[in-house]
Design goal:
heterodimer, A: four-stranded mixed beta sheet, 13 helices, globular
Amino acid sequence: MEFGLSQEQEFLRDTLTRFLADNAGLPRARRFADGDERRAQDLWDGLVALGVPGLVIPEAHGGVGLTTLDAATVAQTLGAAIAPVPFIGTAILVPRALIKAGSADQQAEWLPRIAAGETIVGVAVSEAASGAREGAKVTASAGRLSGKTLFVLDFEADAYLVADDRRRLYLVDANAKGLTRRDLRTIDATRRVGELVLDGVAAQLLPASEDAAVLADVLDVGRVLLAADTFGAAQNMLDQAVAYSLTREQFNRPIGSFQAVKHMCAEMAAELEPCQSLVWYAAHAVDAIPGEARVTACHAKAHVAEAGKFVAKTATEVHGGMGFTDLLGLHYWFKRIGLNRQLLGSPERLREEAARVQALIE
Amino acid sequence: MDLTYGGEYERFRNEVRDFIATHRDAAPDGQGMRAEKTRAWQKMLIERGYTARTIPREYGGYGGDADILKARIIAEEFAQAQVPAGLGGQGISMLVPTLLEMGTEEQKRQFIAPTLRGETIWCQGYSEPGAGSDLASLRTRAELDGDEWVVNGQKIWTSTAQHADWIFCLVRTEPNAPKHQGISFLLFSMKTPGIEVRPLKTMTGDATFNEVFFTDVRVPKGQIVGRRGEGWLVANSILRHERSSLGDPNAMLTRLNALTELMKSETLDGRRLIDDAVYRDRLMKIQGDVMAMRLNDLRLLSAKLNNKNASLAGMIVKLKGTELRHDLESLGIDVLGEIGALYRDEHGDAPYLKDHGLYQYHYMFYLGLIIGGGTSQIQKNIISERGLGMPKEPKLNKEA
């Protein structure tokens, strides 16, 4: 019995943490946010060298064949380092959909390129996960997709995984005729999100996605990974708040010696600490405990979103006026947590889904 | 991630299940600690190693090796079957481990076995009116007079003092030493002349606690655990134990399930409570919290088993667990609307009262637990200082 990470998983986490400490973090996020690069290529190349894009892709297709728990560990580390790179979509959700629902040819065509980091694939499933707004809807007719889809993840991509209104999944090329792309500027400048407008775009159906359970599984995994990203970012904000409170002095003593400040930090730790276990278990469940996967994924995403929101606010308050400024850059974490909360289902919606999955309501 | 316990343990689980299925009629059902049936059950559990498992045979225990998973399986199976597990109480859960660690051979032989058998019931004399969160400032004093300590002072929050045979008690024996070094840990009979127990009624309406007054209570010199002035050390090892047992998330699951059933069966204007989106969202939020705390508990079990550090995960349990339980019971009251305000008294239940007023009772009782056993604020000091490495509040000059 061992609940949590294996030695290999701890090694993965530590290796990635070291790489990101040198190459990501605030300066890199700031440069990405303020500049006009579409992709943080140096960072991406480093992740490719570490095998991150092929993390869950089978070795036969050029990946490393690891689990969703490994993926959650990576997401947590990327969130902590506010890394401005695609990950959840291209490295995890798209391979997941291809492995579960793609034909042998599709797998052979896409998986090796994704694993090698040569092809980045965005994910357009917002309407299925969060509900449709602004008239967004994608319909399929004779192998072509039309309509629009919002809040596409890993938007700076070479292709997209798109869900239609019957919850089937397709791959479309980013340069396909009839496809128009538009950036959607969110509060979070560390990740690209956008809109696809499709007008009779040629698309490859993933055959087994006729079964809506495939999309449901992809959403479960996406929710767990967003929870992990939020948890990593929030944990980092708590660490920053504690460190700041030990150096910042007022009334001739570190503010971290005042109970008011200590209790804020203790409350953050008390909210966050159980989130680690929840993220681990939910990540394990999507691979190994089918009966609990959906309800755990919903609760993990909702619960960590609430804890993350509390920590984002409280850690900023511990920093006082400086926390509110751009100088300290704490807001990059605040906003990353803020975007994650809205993506793939708000807490209220996810709790509703959890109730439905347990047949508490019709 | 490996959530299996392994073959040996699954066999052990089946063995425990079989035992419960075969013998459950012998289990006591609210007869109280002094009842013959309770003692016979306890005796049978010790013989099987289902309680007092690691306590050596010569002191009346089962004499088994420490095995975290077997202990967990026993707890899980008895809880699952809703059959009383081995006796608890402050004597068994707190004094016995302390004696095993700090007691003399004579003390171990004299006290442990009858305590395990349920023949000696203990109460704990720690808190005082002037020494709550700042327990080390306690003032009940004991002075040596020949071969006896003479104890004078007052204790409060002493649960089961009205039934207890003996008390383990913190007293000040070195008035001139720094406050933590002036305390000793004494054991004495509650029948000793000079002890007065007054029940302390709480907001729940029950008198679960007492005040205990000592006037020239004479205690044989040898009834001290550890040396003079080392009482704080002796007490601290078990205080930590008490904290970790408050806010147990697994106990919370039973209440969550009951609340869910209530919301599925009760109706408001002909509509099930669970069909109300606002109440349902509160329930689901609590379900997510309980899930997180139960998994946190699993992580703690695993850390203990695999010698990993998860100290912060342990420090938050009392704080989060008691607050969460209070919230859970609060939802039970709220979904019942005006019915939720009904209660019971010594004349019985109010008409329309659900579950004998358990939601109100627990709502209040858990407020008590938020305060007792180290208040939430003390817990936050511990988390921030020991968990996050933040400095202690500077002392005022007069304390220094």
